[in-house]
């Protein structure tokens, strides 16, 4: 998730490390704080992989600052991760939000719709925070108002996401269809 966020933010514009840390922390929130001991080793690995390059530029003070730029290989890696996210990127809510934050950088509506269909399929599976054997338990099965609240909130947010996913998938599929018809007109077919 950290590497995806770094790639995504650098796709939008070059940044220095501190600026990236602030952006990633804002994206992941209090759930997964980003420490320098996590961020800078990730940047170093990404530079070694050829995904980012660092350039010293004049800073606001006397000392230069190291600004990170996304390379062509980094752009390709971002696209690969967006086009074919790992199963955990689809199922883990925090990783999903990071993926969703940058999915616009995948310039193919059909591919965007496919990623959203994977999330939709995941959310349509029966699930719960609590089980009786293999059977998911519903809020009505608890006399505990706190568990009822947990399940009611999860159900409401899940329904909102399902509605958004279905609407957005339909819109992306229409856009992909229109692009396909447009390219056929240009090719003379």
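Sequence proposed for the structure above (189 residues):
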């Amino acid at each position: 998730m950290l590497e995806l966020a770094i790639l995504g933010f650098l796709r939008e514009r070059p940044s220095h490390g501190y600026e990236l840390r602030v952006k990633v922390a804002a994206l992941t929130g209090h759930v997964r704080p980003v420490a320098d001991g996590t961020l800078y080793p990730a940047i170093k690995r990404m530079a070694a992989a050829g995904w980012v390059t660092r350039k010293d530029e004049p800073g606001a003070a006397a000392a230069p600052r190291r600004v990170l730029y996304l390379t062509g290989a980094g752009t390709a890696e971002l696209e690969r991760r967006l086009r074919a996210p790992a199963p955990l990127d689809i199922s883990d809510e925090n990783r999903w939000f990071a993926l969703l934050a940058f999915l616009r950088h995948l310039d193919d509506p059909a591919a965007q719709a496919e990623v959203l269909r994977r999330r939709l399929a995941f959310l349509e599976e029966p699930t719960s925070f609590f089980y009786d054997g293999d059977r998911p338990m519903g809020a009505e099965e608890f006399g505990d108002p706190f568990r009822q609240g947990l399940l009611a909130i999860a159900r409401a947010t899940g329904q909102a996401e399902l509605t958004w996913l279905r609407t957005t998938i339909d819109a992306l599929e229409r856009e992909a269809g229109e692009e396909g018809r447009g390219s056929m007109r240009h090719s003379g077919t």
